[in-house]
Amino acid sequence: MLKYLLLILLCIFSLNQKGAANTKDINEIDNCLSDLNYEIQKITNSYSKKLLILEEKLKLIRLSMNKQNKKETYVQSFIGHIILRDSISQLLFLRTAEIDKVRYSKGIEIIKILYEKSLALDHHFTTVNTLNDMHKISNPNNFKEFAIAKQQFEYGMNKRQGFNLGNILGENMYASIIHSMISLFSNSDIRKSDKTNMLQEIECVMDFTLQMYNDLNTVYFESVYLKKGNKDLILDLEQLFTDYTNPIKYKTSLNECRDSDDWLTINLHLDNFINRLKFLRSSELSQLEVSNMQIDLDFSIDRLLHFIGTYNSFINDSRKFYEKFAIMLDSYENEDLCNEKIPQDFITLKKSINLTIEKFDHTYRPVEITGSKMKQLLYGVGEY
């Protein structure tokens, strides 16, 4: 009894783990964006209190200046007014710098997540059936029943009228089937009833391979096309990372950063960048450099959003391809009648394609960044 209870608990745990994994895949970037919104609100609220105090003081000074009659007192109030305005301007800049730091940091997290998704997808495409696997499923020469029947058809055939296929045509599906039919019907040593029985033995094999040969080849070649598209996507993402981290002077490639788990070093470079930005702004040494640094940050985030659009398009297109694959492989009309003759690899392929469609909805799901989430990344605007 205890043994069965343990088995039941193990099954429940496995299902929960699977559900948790799917939830993690779906919510990974959503959680990242929720954290971004939280951090933006936290920074905004922190600076709002300080700004409110300074703005109240500024309002009082303005009222005082309007009532001042003495020149000296007015000048002192005016100087105080300028100092307060500068202080407010500096606080607004510091708030923007802190928000930009969070936006940029979350951008790195999104790149990291997308890279893992793209690598996982690349691994999936690599494990998709090879062309040889597809031929094994769709060529009747690879079926034991057909190979035996071919030998029987050709045995005792009129040598003067018959002919043998060469190695190349012998492996060709269409040539092999035509040759086998000619051999069967032209072989006078085989009785009509035996020919009927022989044909019944291989009719499912021939029907399946003739109907599914082109579809299986389409699945293979379009999978290769998708794999190449994903390779290009990975290269684009690696280049994006290089361009994204260039302003903060981080020179390690995305692949090397991932392999060495060097993400904390990026944060150090970002801290140095933001600290220099604050220093230049407060000291007024080079406002042009401040402006250029700000533009570099904004441009990097803008490029990330552009890539997200490219990633979403690829995932959506890939899912449509796999939906088409599923429809094509489900279109075999005689699957129930020929169930015993259909190769197990074909059944496995169908299951794999349906599983991949589920993964496109979970593991590789497009990144939904619209409305307020788009504003958070683009402009650092939180939800209030």
Q: How would you portray this structure in words?
A:
- The protein has 384 residues and is mostly helical.
- It has one domain (30-379).
- 81% of the residues lie in helices and 0% in strands.
- The chain contains 12 helices and no strands.
- Helix 1 (2-67) runs antiparallel to helix 2 (71-127).
- It is rod-shaped and about 130 Å long.
- The protein starts with a helix and ends in a 5-residue tail after the last helix.
- The model is unreliable at 1-23 (pLDDT under 50).
How are the SSEs ordered, and which strands pair?
Elements: H1 2-67, H2 71-127, H3 131-138, H4 144-154, H5 167-171, H6 173-186, H7 192-245, H8 254-260, H9 263-283, H10 287-329, H11 344-361, H12 372-379
Helix pairs in contact: 1-2, 2-7, 2-9, 2-10, 3-7, 4-6, 6-7, 7-10, 10-11, 10-12
